Amino acid sequence: MLYGIFSDVHANLEAFRAVLRFYEKNKVEHFICCGDLVGYGPQPRECVELVMALKDCRSVLGNHDAAVTGRIEMKWFNANALAAIEFARKNLSGAALAFLSALPEKLETPDFTVVHGSPKKPLTEYLLGEIQFVDSLKFWTVSPCFMGHTHMPAYFKHDAAGLPETDFLGPMLRVVSDGGRLMLNPGSVGQPRDGDPRSSCAVYDTENKVFEIFRVPYDIEKTTRLMSEFKMPVILGERLLLGF
Ligand SMILES: [Fe+2]
């Protein structure tokens, strides 16, 4: 079975549509969303409604989703992020808000685990290094564990000998599971931060245990035009053009 793994859409409908077209072209019909559908971008309602319309999509709550629905304190956000959260609050439909409110912080199935930030602190921790990864192992059981939050594609691996290994997926786009425990980050659909402004998403092939990152181009100017039309903070548009 092929799963489309995506995260951090951040209300960027142009980017999200491009990623969904990529999945459709590659016959991916099952999806896992690692959170942060809203925040930063200009079309929160449309993005949440697109996820609601997917036939098979397992989703978790991100920190921006939690802020919009009042499940996390606003002190965690800077002024630009707060402005976009307020914007989302005003624009989401009742059904979209109810959908976000019902999302779990952690999803554990017989086949995989899903969190936004980390299994230890799903809404706040940025999992960036091996020490954090090893520390997180006692907070989840079923591998692979998919996560997002950093907006950078990466993998963390604990092999049979118990040795941790990690890499941020620049040139290396493919991870094959060999029985160790894996945490896999597909990067961000709507606000990549690894210097590549194209959307980032992943496909996980359950049969061959292969996790692969793909970069999908989209009309960034269309998104930034909408952001300036809605008078959102200028820096939020500029960072999309830079991929940072
Ligand atoms: Fe995010």
Give the secondary structure arrangement, pairings included.
Layout: E1 2-6, H1 13-25, E2 30-33, H2 44-53, E3 57-59, H3 63-68, H4 79-91, H5 94-101, E4 106-108, E5 113-115, H6 130-136, E6 145-146, E7 154-158, E8 164-168, E9 174-176, E10 181-185, E11 199-205, E12 210-216, H7 220-229, H8 234-242
Parallel strand pairs: 1-2, 2-3, 5-6, 6-10
Antiparallel strand pairs: 1-11, 4-5, 7-8, 7-10, 9-12, 11-12
Helix pairs in contact: 7-8
What does this structure look like?
- The protein has helices spanning 13-25, 44-53, 63-68, 79-91, 94-101, 130-136, 220-229, 234-242, and strands spanning 2-6, 30-33, 57-59, 106-108, 113-115, 145-146, 154-158, 164-168, 174-176, 181-185, 199-205, 210-216.
- The protein is α/β, with parallel strands linked by helices and 244 residues long.
- The chain has one domain: Metallo-dependent phosphatases (Purple Acid Phosphatase, chain A, domain 2).
- Helix 7 (220-229) packs antiparallel against helix 8.
- The protein is globular, with a radius of gyration of 17 Å.
- The model has no long low-confidence stretch (mean pLDDT 94).
- Fe (ii) ion binds at residues 8, 10, 36, 62, 64, 149, 151.
